[in-house]
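Section 5.1 Outputs to date
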Amino acid sequence: MPSTADPSRSEAKTQGLARDRRVAAVFDAVVRDSYAPLEASLREMADEALVRMVEDLQVQPDSRVLIVEPFSGYLPTVLAHLAGEVTVVCSHGGRSKRLAEQLRRAGAVDIRIAAYVEEASAEAVRYDRIVVLQPANDELGPVLQQRLSPRGRAVWSVDKAMPPRRMRRLLRVDGAPPLEEDLDLVHYMPMLGDMLVEAGVVLHQEVADAVHAAAERGRRLGEELVARGAVREDDLYRVLAMQRHLPFTQTAGILDRLDVQLVRRLPRKYLDHYQFLPICE
């Protein structure tokens, strides 16, 4: 297994994301950029989403973990720092080879890779934690349910977005029916830079350059891209609306319906502070 992260040396990478110091230390120790997606069509989940998912799993040092079809070696390596044993199911031969190479470079040589669940372990073996990233499914399949331990936890993707934006979880508790519900992961937002590249309004390298410049200048990424002329304001706001699941409309369409008398009833400082504009009562 890779060397254990020191919880007392958590850096800024997960500041404000992780409540669990042990989880924060692991995410700070594992370099995300070392793990490219196993295929061009795959995209790794944002750290905010991964942190929430890993914290919800409550992986213990003696946990046996099964990961089905990861997007890269990033999550398996993270969980290898936290768990006692990690097994990965990767059914595609090419992906499996690339995954093995990523894990070898990371020193996570004890992670086992199997082509399918039945090959991962003997039928009697139960896993304390199961993570299914592909394929999307409304329910955890019967084979995986059978492999989940009596007090186990499982999370799985329920949509086909890349990366997934909706996940479910199943919790098993002694003496009670299994609890199945949406994971709080639904509140995370995809990375703005990834969405801008996906929308075709900016190149990946331009985003990478802007990220570093924005950090140095204390700007937001969108502000930096607009200042550089890499992105138009309209395109930025359109993608921001998509990121936050909000409707997008042109200013002219709003002004036609604006109740001027209503706006005048509210102090300018109040509107500036809360950054909103009432349209009508």
